[in-house]
Amino acid sequence: MDRPGRALRQAFALVALGALGCAGCGGSTGVTVPPTGASSLPPASTATDAPTTTAAPATSTTVTPATTTVTSTSTTTVAPTTTSTTLPGGLHPVTPESPLRVWVLGDSLAETVGAALGRWGARTDWAAVTLSYEKGSGLVRSDVFDWLAAAEAGLAEQGPDAVVVLLGANDGQALRLPGRWLAFGTPDWDAEYTRRVGAFMDVLLRRAARVYWVGVPVMAEADYDRRVQHINELQELEASARTGVAYLDAYSLLLDEGGGFAWELPDDQGNLVEVRLPDGVHLTAAGAERVAGLVQEAIADDWLVSEG
User: Fold this and answer.
1) What is the dihedral of CA 100, 134, 280, 29, to 10 degrees?
2) What's 292's DSSP letter?
3) Domains in the chain, start-ordered, CATH in brackets?
4) Closest by alpha carbon to 149, among 54, 61, 59?
């Protein structure tokens, strides 16, 4: 399918009462496209909104990310139905009086997916969704944003039942350790990156009953996509080692029939809709709804809740 030629407008301004949306996802590239070659030299971030220095991150590491935090509330009276009152350890029955508290966090890809999940939570009247994202962030460049520290504070403040994570699209670059840099994809890089991913998962599991780790979607640029696939493999490996973490494969969700990058995919009525923005990185509203649906299904299966 040819790349869409028409301009996409900024859409879905963030509003209250669960009508959440994408603020500014149509133009800026909040996800940093990694450099084309693995190098032992310090990487330079290409995100338009992220610092390229090695100074401490602008956001304090003692507070949650301040870019956007929106909590969905419901305007409906439709109550969910539970299929069982006996749930696995750490899970509670979901009712309008005791809704599921979901925290969505990550880079700019989390913005539209979190907005879609917020609309879903408000519509069904059984999930309160909070969104926190930091453009250009990841687990490699803690000097850009320290997610480990931010998560510690955010968990204490919000006390979520479940956390949805979208991180990794900015991580296909060299990784800095004291006194040296590790080139992307080397054994040393893989070992340190998986350690960071695992440590982040463990922090989230100390407060949340479930973590839903969304893999990075397929990317249009070939080298970038190869890096994404490698990152997804390492993230999935760490998720599989933890009972409370579910890895959700958003990569294959956005492939075309031939197994390649899809600019458009059929909707529920069989009509082709654009799922990616012209940058070949970010999601349209329809693409975000598609990924959010994957998360919704996983949450519903775990918490034994269906829309009533």
Assistant:
1) 150
2) H
3) 69-303 (3.40.50.1110)
4) 61
Instruction: Report in angstroms the alpha-carbon separations of 128 from 100, 132, 161, 188, 199.
Output: 6, 13, 10, 40, 26
Would you state the pLDDT for residue 124?
81
pLDDT for position 104: 97
pTM: 0.75
For the cut 60, the answer to whether the pLDDT of residue 130 exceeds it is yes
Mean pLDDT score across all residues of the chain: 77
Alpha-carbon span 283 to 34, nearest angstrom: 18
Residue whose tokens read 């919000």: 158
Residue-wise pLDDT tens digits, 162-204: 999 999 999 999 999 999 999 999 999 999 999 999 999 999 9
The residue assigned the tokens 């990058």 is: 261
Instruction: Name the 3-class secondary structure at 156.
Output: helix
CA separation for the pair 146, 62 (Å, rounded):
10
H/E/C letters for each residue in the chain? CCCCCCCCCCCCCCCCCCCCCCCCCCCCCCCCCCCCCCCCCCCCCCCCCCCCCCCCCCCCCCCCCCCCEEECCCCCCCCCEECCCCCCCCCCCCCCCCCEEEEEEECCHHHHHHHHHHHHHHHHCCEEEEEEECCCCCCCCCCCCCHHHHHHHHHHHHCCCEEEEECCCCCCCCEEECCEEECCCCHHHHHHHHHHHHHHHHHHHCCCCEEEEECCCCCCCHHHHHHHHHHHHHHHHHHHCCCCEEEECHHHHCECCCCCECCEEECCCCCEEECECCCCCCECHHHHHHHHHHHHHHHHHHHCEECC
| DSSP letter assigned to residue 24 | S
Contact assessment for residue 302 and residue 296, using Cβ atoms and an 8 Å cutoff: no
State which amino acid sits at residue 99.
P
What residue type is 32 in one-letter code? T
Per the listing, tokens 């839903």 go with 212
